[in-house]
Write a structure and sequence with these properties.
Serine Threonine Protein Phosphatase 5, Tetratricopeptide repeat, 3 domains, 17 helices, about 80% helix, about 0% strand, elongated
Length: about 300
Amino acid sequence: MLFAVLLMLAAVPGFDEAFRSGLLALQRGDLKGAETGLSQAAKLAPSDGRVWVALAQVRRRLGDEAGAESAAGQAAKNAAGNKPLLAALGTYYFEAAKPLLQSEQFAEAAKLLETARTRVPGDPQIELALGVACYGLRHFDEAAAAFLRTIDIDPTIEQPYVFLGRFPDQVASRLPEITRKFEAYEKAHPKSYLGYFLHAKALNAGSADAEASLKLLEKAVSLNANDSAVQFELGTVLDRLRRYDDAAKTYESAATLDPLDAPTQYRLARVYGRLGREADAQRAREAHEKLTRTQDAKR
């Protein structure tokens, strides 16, 4: 009996061999072989977080969600202070969340990413993805919080600013902080239209200084006159200033750049009405209604 046990132990490969075997199998697309090799390596060196991250990836691809999360949890237990391992674990979670976000399974993505941010704190790509999931759920306050955390971690990433620019009017309590972030981005990127546009949009959302917003948007247009969102926002501030002729021309530019945008047609109808251009107002109302019906049918 003892001799048989010794033979069995001798047949067990060493950690390096098992780990290499698992990774090579993964590279070949042999997921079962990869799981066998990596599971063996994990038994031989249970404190090696690299193995657990790889095993989590394999199990997720095999459809074993519970096993994947168990492996990711084991990786997290050994990741404290290990920057390369934390980065690998963060990438794993980000890649796991991407197909959920792409298929608009926002609730599932948010649940996964909430777990991820506790296991990999301070990872900007996880915070960004969580913000996208919350935005998809229309949980605007949670989305804003995640995007603001992303900016705090890495202010050079552009996406959280862009997303925050979509809904500043939905998060009034966070608007002062969002405005400061946009202003900082503007100062850090003086040759980009985006900072001026976002800063102005935040001012408009808070019904703040219209003249200051106008100057920002004129600067944005001088840097990029072909963005329909910039033209729309400029029309909004001109409307606020009761410069209705200029507002109409600017909304018309926005409509030319994006003829499928229903809100632009709505604003055009309203400003045409104020100018007494009833035929144009009616045309814009009909265009708005048609676009709205089409968009609703696609949902």
